Amino acid sequence: MEQNRTQTRTQKRTHWRRQKRTQKQTQKKTQKKTQKRTKNWTHKRIQKRTQNMIQKRKQKRTQKMEQKRTQKRTLKGTTKKTHKRTQKMEQKRTQKRTQKLT
């Protein structure tokens, strides 16, 4: 009778230990899975963010380039006009000089 009781006690103890062990293992497994999932998710989020940043940078660059182009175009137009104007003024001056001399 006494032996039986102790045997059951030890059996119970091993059962508890085994249960605890399996519980820990399952916990670890689930933890790993969730870690993987969150890792993937954060990686995707970071990837998306970097892609957006790159896209924005490209857009800014193209906008700046376009702005510069338009500025150059307008400047070219105005400089041509001013250049012509100065040429005409210079011609008039030379004509006046020649008239004064003669």
UniProtKB/TrEMBL annotation:
Superkingdom per UniProt: Eukaryota
Record's compositionally biased regions (Basic residues): 10-48, 70-86
Region span, Disordered: 1-102
Protein's UniProt name: Uncharacterized protein
Organism (species): Ridgeia piscesae (Tubeworm)
